[in-house]
Amino acid sequence: MKIVVAKHMGFCGGVRRAVEIAERAAQTAGGPVTTWGPLIHNPQVVRRLEGAGVRVAERKEELGGQAFVVSAYGVEHAVLDAARERGMRIVDATCPVVTRAHQLAEKLAAEGYQVVCVGDHGHPEMVTLKEMLGDRVTVVHTREEAARVKVSGRLGVLSQTTQSQENFRQIVGDFALRVRELKVLNTLCPAITVRQEETDVLVNEIDALLVIGGHGSSNTTRLAEIGRARNLPTYHVETADEISPSWFDGVGTLGVVSGASTPEWIITEILHRLQELGAS
Ligand code: SF4
Question: Residue 278: pLDDT band by 50, 70, 90 thresholds?
Fold first, then answer.
């Protein structure tokens, strides 16, 4: 079996930055530091960080330690306030691409646009945006949801940074036929777009697709969706242990791609495992 590995693999700039900030905070704090939920959507990295003194809190009562590290996707104000009340130093690891998208949404609202953001309900980036703009923003995930939005006057549409290009394109196209004035801000992250485009091309040359990344990572899940949409056998794994040799029976060429929060060491382990299974 031949393997074709995508060019863009491993951490994106924002994830690498967040991990480095958290590690540095834990080293300099002289005690544990805390994040709200996982710092990034990769459980193996989060476990390693725990070993380095970066703890994960899921409830406000669990907040504690020298410093509070804001994740790459941002965090709700109520949580920040709770951390401050406990005397924790705030260390901001929010990705600048996410911050910029939030600022652009705020600007649209300030200019009087009805704002719609294409994103995943409940994703921290969307939760923070809702907190910032309240009723002035509507988050939609599907074309059906977008069709139910009552549009009055000028509409501004933007996207969660890790959304699928295709979903954003379709929803924007639908709105374009419904409104008199439409302003579209492309807030898709280039680090994500390039991986989706690469996967889009790769699926034409392969017999099966292996996607490496956290099962809870939205950008990794999107890559797997590209393979499945082409009816390719598609496998989404976090670690080498999850690989089943039977997946590759009769596969001539296997494509390998990774999400933006997948560390290089997991990719290396998986490529070794594939070699053990006879891949070249
Ligand atoms: S995928 Fe893009 S927006 Fe998300 S952390 Fe990476 S660089 Fe930032």
Answer: confident
